[in-house]
Structures are given as C-alpha cells and as structure tokens.
Amino acid sequence: MALNKVILFVIDGMDTVNFTMAHAPVMSGIHGKTAVGVAHTEIIGAGTVLTPIAHAMMGTGSPDVVAARPGFETEGKCYNYYGEVVETIGDVAREAGLSRVAVGKNEAAIVLGGTGNLTRSYLELDGIDPSDEEVMTQEILDAFYQMDKGILVATYGGVDFTGHRKNLPRLIEAVEKADSIVGVLLKEADLEETLLIIAADHGTNPITGRHNTAPTPLCLMANNIAGRVNLGVVHNIEIATTIAGALEVQVPQRAVGRDLGELVHQLLAGEEVSLDYQLEMNRQLNAFFRKLPLRHKAEPELGGRNNEKER
Ligand SMILES: [Zn+2]
User: Fold this and answer.
1) pLDDT reported for residue 73
2) Can you give the pTM of this predicted structure?
3) What is the 162 CA–ligand 1 centroid distance (Å)?
4) Which of 70, 119, 301, 302 is the most buried (most CB within 10 A)?
5) At the fourth CATH level, which superfamily is domain 5-310?
6) E-assigned strands of the chain?
7) What average pLDDT does the structure give for the chain?
8) Ligand 1 centroid from CA 51, angstroms
9) Dist. CA 47 → ligand 1 center (Å)
C-alpha cells in the first residue's frame, strides 16, 4: 500500500545516550504505532568540512558519499569518491512528480539532492532558526499542509547546539522539545497516508562538546504499525530504501539496505526474519564494491579547485 507522504525528522546530535536521559514518551512509542531500532550512522567524518555525511547517506542509501553543507556557494549535492553526483531519493521523487520540501538546518536539503532540487525551502538559508522548537513546529506544519504528495525532510538543531556548548540540562530539554515536535506531527499528520521517520545524523556528547560515534535511535510511525515493533540494529543508510518503499517509487540508483517498512510487515506477520542488518547489507555492499574500479585506479574528473592545486 503506497503512502502519499513521508516526513523524515532528523534530530541533529541525538544519540541513544542523549535520548535516554530525557523524558521522550512520544518517540518511545507510547501511542503504539511505532517501530524502533538502534541505528548505526555517520562513523567517521563527523565535524569535518564535509560534515553532513549522514544526510548524504540517508538520501542516497549509498556508503561512499559526501556532501558539503548547503550554503550560498554550495547546493549540497551528494558526490561519490570519484566526484560524480549520486542520485538521491529527492531526484527519484522529482522524476515521479512528487514534492521535495526541506525545513530547518540546511543539511536537510542534502537528503533531497540539494537546495536546487527542492519544491519548497524553509531552511536556515531562508532565515529560520532550526533550534527554536516553536519555529520548527510551525514551519514543518506549514510545509506539511502545503504538500500534496511527496517527501518532507526537517532537521532540528537544538540537541546538537546545546551539546556543543556542553550544556547538559539544556540538551535534555532539547530532546524533550524534539519529542513534543514529534507529538504534534503525530497528531497533525494523517498516519493513514503518512510515514513518519525519526532519525539522528550522529551523537553530540554534552561532556566533551563534540560529535561522537554512538548509535542513534530510529523510529518509524504509521497506522499500519501496531504496538511497538523492535527493529533491532539498523543503519541510517536504509532510510532511502525505506522512503522509496513507502511511496512506491524507484530506489535511488546506488542505494543499499533494507526497506524497513517491509521489515515491519514481516515482523508483524510473524515471519521469521533476521534482524541482523549486516548480513543483508554486507551482501549488497560486496556486490556494490565489486562493480567499482579500485579507487587509485580510477581517473576521476573532479574538475574542482582542489584538484587543480594538487597537480
Ligand atoms: Zn554538530
């Protein structure tokens, strides 16, 4: 059954530790329409110039992608190691005639193929404060109501912002504010036709003030999910395939991983399925990497300034 809309709500910096310190009943699944998993995500590179690797993974479903933070000079397209643009779920949605809407932190646009591929934009670039939960709630709702059929990606900044400032009490508060945003979305979005995905790009440790490699929560909410389904260990890379499955559109060209919506169905039907994401992912990744030339043998056409400098 195809849904009309997917909301991907990314809570920047919310790892499983930050999550469990706060009172977050909505994300914990108190309403009984939730599937939860513990996600592997951005492992290396958090905090570097090419920081939004996790957003690039979520959009492309591809392991070897990077993207620069969208700003006035960069759109935030996803590139592979060879400097080629990689297809995102936003590109697939465009081809299928669906809306692509990004709200909050500029990184949100990366999932959808960059700021140049959006039908509506409610980003920092447009003057929005992504750490203000009232602003975020309002903008997400506004964007959601305007959207007929398509994908809305929103990235909330409050947890990451307070984590970098080593402000533990405010970080806990920010997680709770994020939970209340999810509560509003749950109430306003018709879950008969909407899949709500809650994820995080990486953790931000409020003791060190730095990004970390801790796993992050991943929740799916929809009306066809009954009770609280345990997805086990998942990977944020599987988000692209999951969105494609919900909207019944093509999976992005290089996407690997499972359709987590499909996994929920299998679990609810009592089918015997392995919850080890690595088995399926390793199979797909091996096939994926076998097709690629070795990096040092490839001759990339990067064409960028950095490339010129090296020669
Ligand atoms: Zn950060």
Assistant:
1) 85
2) 0.90
3) 9
4) 70
5) Alkaline Phosphatase, subunit A (3.40.720.10)
6) 5-11, 33-40, 65-66, 79-80, 99-104, 120-123, 150-156, 194-199, 203-205, 210-212, 216-221, 227-235
7) 89
8) 9
9) 7
